[in-house]
Design goal:
heterodimer, A: mainly alpha, Four Helix Bundle (Hemerythrin (Met), subunit A), 2 domains, about 70% helix, B: mainly alpha, Methane Monooxygenase Hydroxylase, Chain G, domain 1, flat, oxidoreductase activity, acting on NAD(P)H (chain B), NADH-ubiquinone oxidoreductase chain 3 (chain B), mitochondrion (chain B), membrane (chain B)
């Protein structure tokens, strides 16, 4: 147990170091790389806590998708050299405020809203093989998320819907006078009418 | 849990990756000059930096990919425990999928998926 905790502390410390590298490195590409490193280390932390499926989801979603989005941001914004170092601390009060909000949430609100009477959840009769084998991480999430906490699921769905609509509203603008591909028109087109012999 | 083999595999893969990467440093001759390390464009001198800016529509496609990636992720534990969670669990995720289908219809109607 102590061994596991010391490994956990070591990996978490490495993750904090990688997070510091994100804000302190000069090149934005290096920042993105250290961000990926810190995501991977966070996934290792989850793996050490034996929440294996969430660790894999972390790798898929954060490293596979979010980090690529950050790379896209770096490539879109065309920032070659970071701005002056002096204004690094001007975001400190805002960051402190957000961090204290997070701690308030994690410490006070989350335990109250996620407490569930697990003993209450035994479907109809005791299944002895299940009671002996115990559930894995994925099964536990599946048992609780869709029946006990459906509002969090719906909330996640609303957030994703908002992300779809917001991303489309922000980025999509149709150019005028741009030739667009019309697939059905293309497929309906008869080659006999189009081809001509040139004398 | 059976984590020690995973750790073994991670160490092994890190070793193989660093070994192959290190071979190209130690075995091959390294004589970098300005022409060799600059960005390569076939046939002529490079016009510009290799890190060019590009269209925001790639970003839009990536965001839309992530959203449906997460949708599939939410479906995994549901599919595993569907037998136990009953009709309520079934309809809760149907509602969730319905919300995202609404977003998908919006996206299709707006034409965010077709390329100009």
């Amino acid at each position: 147990m102590l061994f596991q905790q010391s490994i956990l502390c070591f990996i978490a410390g490495l993750a904090c170091g990688a997070g510091f590298l994100v804000i302190s490195s000069k090149s934005p590409v290096h920042s993105v790389l250290s961000l990926i490193f810190s995501f991977v280390l966070c996934s290792f932390v989850l793996l050490t806590l034996e929440i294996d499926i969430l660790a894999l989801i972390f790798l898929i979603v954060y490293v596979g998708a979010i980090a690529i989005l950050f790379l896209f941001v770096v490539m879109i914004l065309n920032v070659k050299v970071a701005e002056a170092r002096a204004n690094l601390f001007q975001y400190f009060p805002l960051g402190f405020f957000l961090l204290s909000l997070l701690y308030f949430d994690l410490g006070l609100l989350m335990p109250a809203s996620f407490s569930v009477d697990v003993a209450h959840f035994i479907p109809f009769y005791l299944e002895w093989p299940k009671a002996v084998l115990s559930f894995g991480c994925l099964e536990s999430i599946g048992f609780l998320l869709y029946t006990y906490f459906p509002f969090y699921l719906i909330g996640a769905g609303l957030l994703l819907l908002l992300a779809i609509v917001g991303a489309i509203l922000l980025t999509l603008h149709r150019g005028v006078g741009v030739h667009r591909q019309e697939v059905s028109f293309q497929n309906r087109r008869d080659w006999v009418e189009v081809l001509h012999m040139v004398q | 849990m059976s984590y020690p083999p995973i750790a073994g595999f991670m160490v092994l893969s890190a070793f193989i990756a660093s070994f192959i990467l290190g071979l190209s440093f130690f075995v091959a001759k390294l004589k970098p000059d300005g022409e060799k390390v600059s960005a390569y464009e076939c046939g002529f001198d490079p016009f510009d930096d290799a890190r060019a800016r590009f269209d925001v529509r790639f970003y839009l496609v990536a965001i839309l990919f992530i959203i449906f990636d997460l949708e599939v992720t939410f479906c995994f534990p549901w599919a595993l425990t569907l037998f136990y969670s009953g009709l309520f669990g079934f309809y809760s995720i149907v509602f969730f999928l319905g919300l995202l289908t609404l977003g998908f219809v919006y996206e299709w109607q707006k034409g965010a998926l077709d390329w100009e």
